[in-house]
Write a structure and sequence with these properties.
By secondary structure, this protein is α/β, with parallel strands linked by helices. It has one domain: Alpha/Beta hydrolase fold, catalytic domain (Rossmann fold). It starts with a strand and ends with a helix. The strands form 2 sheets. It has a 9-stranded mixed beta sheet, with helices on both faces. It has a two-stranded antiparallel sheet with strand order 6-7. Helix 2 packs parallel to helix 3. The protein has 10 helices and 11 strands.
């Protein structure tokens, strides 16, 4: 395990509180990301991917300005859903020479119109375990639904964290298959995710067999018994001031080594959870700014460099 020493002190991102670029209303939260995205010269589009189950997955797709066919990166959003920053991150990776397919995993879902108070003896988060559409559930079917259908960030967080892994894996398969079939794709496939999405990126590596690599940004590891199914190298990016996640790294190294798998984590000292986003915000701390820069350079190098 490598550690990158950075100066400064960063704040840990907390899902349900104000974090750099996230707090407040979503319309105002990430103007800096939206401005950067609006200035991009690259072609981007919203597509609807029809899954075999009939589910319609919405995705943001960005193309690089290159003359040759390019690899595909399926990008998984944070617990905050398909935010402006997430789309700006997709555009930045396309700028390095990659086709990026960034699905909104809340596609087809919207806020539950009948929100009930928790029953006696039931914790405030127990609604996450109820069936979609049940009273008090985190979401219900909506068309087209998606992140923007939810009224506030708290609702998005509750809905994202309640999504079943089986649905998530199916959505990521659909996004990957869509990307690989594009005429400008060269057949190579990568998966990358942030925060909640970082954990799902690691989990997807246990599911998908044609990945060239998986990139996990401050996400939790999959079950140990699933690691034997991993066929691609896994590269981790973690924050030093994020004990909730970074303390899982040593055991994950042990477990991945025992399974005979490649796992190369780096911990960026002084940075906080969510530093890839927080490091871009106008009020970024020195540590988050440095971690973001170092991590992006490492990511691009591992991907094969700017094309």
């Amino acid at each position: 395990m490598n550690r990158v020493l950075l100066s400064g002190v960063a704040c840990v991102a907390v899902a349900l509180s104000s974090v750099a670029g996230i707090g407040g209303t979503r319309a105002e939260a990430q103007d800096w990301a939206r401005t950067a995205l609006d200035k991009s010269p690259r072609h981007s589009e919203y597509v609807t991917i029809q899954e075999a189950s009939g589910r319609k997955l919405q995705a943001f797709v960005v193309y690089p300005e290159v003359k040759d066919k390019a690899p595909v990166i399926v990008l998984i959003h944070e617990i905050f859903g398909e935010s402006d920053w997430f789309k700006e991150m997709a555009d930045e990776l396309a700028g390095a020479g990659y086709i990026v397919v960034a699905p909104d995993l809340l596609s087809g879902w919207g806020p539950n119109a009948v929100a009930a108070k928790p029953m006696a003896g039931m914790g405030g988060d127990d609604h996450m375990h109820r069936a979609p559409g049940a009273p008090g559930a985190a979401y219900e079917a909506a068309m087209p639904g998606g992140t923007s259908a939810f009224p506030d960030q708290s609702a998005v967080v509750h809905a994202v964290t309640s999504l079943p892994d089986s649905e998530i894996m199916g959505d990521l398969d659909a996004a990957a298959d869509y990307g690989k079939k594009l005429p400008s794709a060269n057949g190579r496939l990568f998966i990358a995710g942030f925060c909640w999405g970082g954990g799902k990126s690691f989990l997807y590596a246990t599911h998908r067999k044609d990945l060239s690599a998986a990139f996990v940004f401050y996400g939790t590891p999959p079950p140990v018994d699933a690691m034997k199914n991993i066929t691609a190298p896994v590269y981790g990016f973690y924050a030093g001031n994020d004990a909730r996640i970074s303390t899982t790294v040593p055991q994950t190294e042990t477990d991945m080594k025992a399974a005979g798998k490649t796992y190369e984590p780096v911990i960026y000292d002084g940075a906080g959870h969510g530093f890839m986003r927080a490091g871009e915000a106008p009020d970024a701390s020195a540590a988050n700014l440095a971690a973001r820069r170092e991590a992006f350079q490492r990511l691009v190098k591992l991907l094969g460099g700017v094309r």
